[in-house]
Amino acid sequence: MLNKDQAVLVVVDIQGKLAQLMADKVSLFGSLEKVIKGFNLLDVPIIWLEQVPDKLGTTIPEVANLLSKISPIPKTSFGCMGSDKFKKALEQTGRNKVVLVGIEAHICVYQSAAQLLEEGYDVTVISEAVSSRTIENCQIGIERMAQLGASISSVEMILFELLQNAEAKYFREIAALVK
Fold it and tell me: 3-class SS at 57?
């Protein structure tokens, strides 16, 4: 099980026009908002990535506005571990349980999960907070990550897993987020 002292959220490439092409983008954006708000509330570190932002554009405002206290890390590699800045940021958290959200599930999220697992991190993918341009590619990406050893979870499941107790601080706020 995850606990908030071991977890870190990694937000992968929710950028520009590409984000607008995602399958069921309204649901995706809503799920991302809940996850980011929940992690912020629980004071769990977040690392924010952007894939070649000068070409793909910056993170969509719906997500960027929730991450205003941190700066995005630009990358050119599809997987996050190809970025030295990302590796340094992850090491600085001292966390070994990485929760992944973002796009596209079958490319950047998948390659990030594969690289993190290879480096010995525990990886959890929030199924409704990842997407691809097609539902099929998204599902293939999620299946491949699970085959490699990533845990698959949901927004509500992960937030309550981090809380662990109905008497925990912010229980009511988290419960209101997922309603």
Answer: coil
> Are the C-beta atoms of 86 and 107 separated by less than 8 Å?
no
pLDDT class for 1, splitting at 50, 70, 90? confident
Average pLDDT, the chain: 95
For residues 101-122, give the mean pLDDT.
97
| Number of other CB atoms surrounding residue 118 within 10 Å | 12
Cα distance between residue 106 and residue 21, in whole Å: 14
Q: Is 162 helix (H, G, I), strand (E, B) or coil?
A: helix
Distance (Å, whole) CA 141 – CA 167? 36
Contacts of 43 (CB under 8 A, 6+ apart): 4
Assign domain 7-178 one CATH number from 2.60.120.260, 3.75.10.10, 3.90.79.10, 3.40.50.850.
Answer: 3.40.50.850
In this structure, is the dihedral angle defined by the CA atoms of residues 10, 67, 130 and 154, taken in order, positive or negative? positive
- Cite the DSSP H helix spans in the chain: 16-20, 25-41, 53-56, 61-64, 84-93, 110-118, 135-148, 155-163, 171-178
